[in-house]
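We close this part of the discussion by returning to an individual protein. Part of our work consisted of pairing the sequence of a single chain with a tokenised description of its backbone. No coordinates are needed to read the tokens, only the vocabulary itself. The amino acid sequence and the backbone structure tokens for this protein are reproduced below:
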Amino acid sequence: MIPLIILANRRTRTVKGTMIASVSVIFGMWLERFTIVLPTLINPRLPYEKGMYHPTWIEFAVTAGCFATFILLYILFTKFFPIISIWEVKEGKEIGVKETEERIKSYLPGKA
């Protein structure tokens, strides 16, 4: 409710107001998780042995596979949809050539 009030008012929609709204959202989410997890840890419903957890090779393989799939999809995305738009590169080359010619002419002695 607090973030909505802060961001709905035009006067408080500043960098400081947005940061306060963001921090209050994060704090609210943390409190929600806290109220979900803490009661179940205090009164466990299932009997379990206390001890250390060690992941198996299958869990490592699934995690590595997820990372590899993400990297593959990212590479495919950047191949079909370039990260730097081509028209900006072309425009930059055109402006860069003109600026370079002017700079070179200013370095030369006498009138060019």
About this structure: Helices lie at 2-8, 15-42, 57-80, 86-107.
